[in-house]
Design a protein that fits this description.
By secondary structure, the protein is an alpha/beta fold. The strands form 4 sheets. The chain has a two-stranded parallel sheet. The chain has a two-stranded parallel sheet with strand order 3-4. The protein is globular.
């Protein structure tokens, strides 16, 4: 087969079946505008994305944070903390990060006035056309969690999505693209069949099924930027020049 379109949660990803069946897989950011486009296509002819997906039988995947979707809970990295940056928060131990966030008014199980994720009804409606998969419970950076915390996030996100939304969950995308060998083993023991990283480049049949790669693209990217990103040139040059590391940690951090 030729090309496939993958819309991931927070970033775009390839799934196991897509790697085996398609020559190229293109990934796009699942921002609200994309979600609205898919959602409204069910009711309106003003949006063309969903009919195109159905007509061309294009696989679409969205990864869900199980304990944020269907609620008014917020993503922790959207909350501003005056004393420390989001990037520094990502590199803190899970408890230290949550304690600091709590002092600034954020709690991961707190319901806010407005939601940030899909509603229950939207997930149910879209599930006829979209393959929903797991993106953890609350989106912590797993290598900075204890083994118990990481295991809890991985196991219970699968259980929650399958129980509440009646979804078949077999794939997990690592929050922030961060993972270690420990997370790979936890996926295997928890019944997942694939894991999706932020590691650069394309996938083929030799790619480790629990370390699938991806190329992402901003929602407001120009055509030129989009073209450069789907070829991999943009990401290659950026990571060579900037020296940005991949999300793989050879050893667990906690």
């Amino acid at each position: 087969l030729g090309n496939a379109l993958d819309i991931g949660a927070h970033v775009g990803f390839w799934l196991k079946d897509m790697c085996k069946e398609f020559k190229q897989v293109y990934a796009f950011e699942p921002i609200n505008a994309v979600r609205d486009c898919i959602h409204h296509n069910v009711k309106s002819d003003n949006y063309k994305l969903l009919p195109l997906i159905k007509e061309m039988n294009i696989p679409i995947t969205i990864f869900l944070c199980s304990h944020i979707v269907g609620t008014n809970r917020h993503y922790w990295f959207k909350h501003q903390v005056d004393v420390v940056s989001t990037e520094k928060l990502k590199k803190m131990g899970n408890k230290e990060r949550l304690d600091l966030l709590k002092k600034s008014g954020f709690e991961q199980q707190k319901d806010f006035g407005e939601r940030m994720a899909l509603s229950y009804n939207e997930v149910i409606e879209m599930s006829n056309y979209v393959d929903f998969q797991s993106h953890s419970m609350f989106h912590p950076c797993l290598p900075y969690c204890t083994k118990q915390e990481s295991e809890f996030e991985i196991i219970n996100s699968k259980k929650q999505l399958e129980k509440v939304f009646k979804l078949k969950i077999n794939s997990f995308s690592f929050p922030n693209g961060d993972y270690s060998d420990r997370e790979i083993e936890l996926l295997k023991s928890s019944g997942y069949s694939s894991g999706i990283s932020c590691d650069l480049w394309f996938n083929n049949q030799k790619t480790n099924i629990f370390r699938l790669k991806r190329l992402d693209c901003r929602d407001d990217a120009s055509i030129i930027e989009l073209e450069s990103k789907v070829t991999g040139i943009y990401h290659f040059l950026k990571r060579v020049i900037v020296g940005k590391k991949f999300g793989y940690f050879k050893n667990k951090l906690t």
